[in-house]
Every structure is written in C-alpha cells, then in structure tokens.
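User: You have something folded?
Assistant:
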Amino acid sequence: MDAGVKTTTRTLGRWGSPRSGEAESGGGIEVSALGFGCWAIGGEWQSADGQPLGWGRVDDEESVRAIHRALDLGVTFFDTADTYGAGHSERVLGRALGKRRADVVVATKWGNVFDEPTRTHIGADDSPAYARRALTASLRRLGTDYVDLYQLHLSDAEPERAAQLRELCEEFVEKGLIRAYAWSTDDPARAAVFAEGKHCAAVQHTLNVLQDAPEMLALCEESELASINRSPLAMGLLTGKRGGAMEAGDIRSRPPAWLQGFGDGSGADPAWLARVDALREVLTSDGRTLAQGALSWLWARSRRTIPIPGFRSVAQAEQNAGAIAKGPLTAAQSAEIDRLLGR
C-alpha cells in the first residue's frame, strides 16, 4: 500500500499534448485526484432488447448544478462516454462546463453504436472510420474543439485492431483533436497494447476495495500510466445504501452478467453486503462516510489511482469531493482491510 501519497492532484500518463499556447511537456496532464463519472447523468437508455443501461431517471438541471458544485470544490476531471444516455451525458456535461471548459480535463469514450432519438444501444464498431465519426460527434455534443482523454470503450477488442486504433489516436493528437488516449478494459494484456503509444496516458478499469486489480496496477506503474477507477463505490454498494429492488430504468434492476453484487436484480447480494459490513468500521474511521472511506482506500492503494464515482445530485457531489480533504487511509488501515477480506 502507498499511504501518505499526495491526493489533491494526480497525473494522466507520462506525456500529454499541450493545449493551444502551452509549451510541450513530458510531465503528463494534471488533474484532481478525484474525478467525477458521468454515466448516471446520461439518464435512461437501453439495449435493443430492452435491457436498461442507465441509472434511472435524472434531472438535468440538478446534474448541471452538481457539476458546478464539483468545480467549486476543486474537481477538474470529468469522465463520460458518447454512449451514456445515447449522447445525453456529453450534452449535459458540455452545457454545464460552458466557459469553464478550459479549466477542466474532459475524458470521453467511443466504440459503441447507438440511436440518439430512441436512446438505444445497437451494437459496436471498432473500425478506424467509425472512430473518426464518433470523435467528430462527441466534439459537437460536448461543445468543444478537443478532448483531453479519448478512450476505447470496447473492453474485449482484438489486440491487432487496437494497435491500429492506437496509431489513429496518435494521428488525432497530432491534429490537436485530443491530448491523450486510453483503453477502458479490465485485461492488462490488452491495456499493454495501448501503453506502447507515446500519448497513451491511462487505463480505465474496475477497482474498488472489494475488487482489487494488482496486475493492472502493476502495468500502470511499469508503463507510467494513470489508473482511472470505474466502479470505485462498487455500483453503490459502498455508499451504505442497502435498499431493495431498483427502479425499472436502473441497470441494477436487471443486472447483466458482468455486473457483480446485485444477483437477480431483487437487490444487493447479501454476501457482498456482508463484506461491506465487515469493512464499515475501518472505512468510516477519522470522520469519513463509508463512501469517502472507499475512495480513501483507492488513494492508499497506489499513487496512480484516480477514482471516478458517479453522481446525480449536488449532495452526492459534495460527499464525494469531501473525501479529498480526508486523504488516503493509513498503511495500518489498509492492512486491516486486507486481513478482514482474507487477501
């Protein structure tokens, strides 16, 4: 564990293309240690067979207020994807940032094909031609002329195709359309393909106190990449909410095979809740909420971690951002968590 590390800021990768007027630097792109994930603010959307893919209904005006509050609290990194809400998340984020766009680092993703009018995911496309069209569309929805971090959103894309897309991303960097790129995948071998590129800055992967990823963290350390942590609160299990069945438009109401911890959709898996309960005393130490403790564990886990918890309200934004002041867990606290989980 790496307790005591700096947690006000982190760096995306070893290199980042400068914005207009900035000097080229090998120091990477600096971001707040906590990012905000914008999946939930995309609202409801679904697969072609009706599987919910969002987090249920959302109030766009509250989402905008929450983004503004996050900015005021020092959050400078926002992660979205073109497919979240079938384009809606990008539109809301772009509107909220407005004139403050240059003050933040925006990450988005491509690879999924969707229909905006019906908010339906209809497939995947790993072709270079689609990547070009997807980037143009994302820039339009975000209301910007560049993306700071562009991420491949197809976790199981073939490595040979990924190598082609990596070179295409280098072309995007040269044209000033993006500053850096990454792959959103839980496979270290695939992530290593992108890591070979000069302007690869990160890997986005699952990581939380219940789901460790030592091999991916080792790759990030070896390749000098940021570890962007999706599901840092285990899809809500680490927020303290126990709840029952989720609303119909929530992905957790009909969890796909990859979504662990929610069984058949009737509520959280009791075995997972028992693990959360076992960690509660340690995670809520030093005045933290359970969610803040889970984020603090991530900062203690590695100097490269950047958790991106989701949010749908000002209150959630404030609680998540409040973790920054608490800092990482101590080495002793992290060791106790490993003992409690038997690892």
In short: The domain at 9-341 is CATH 3.20.20.100 (TIM Barrel).
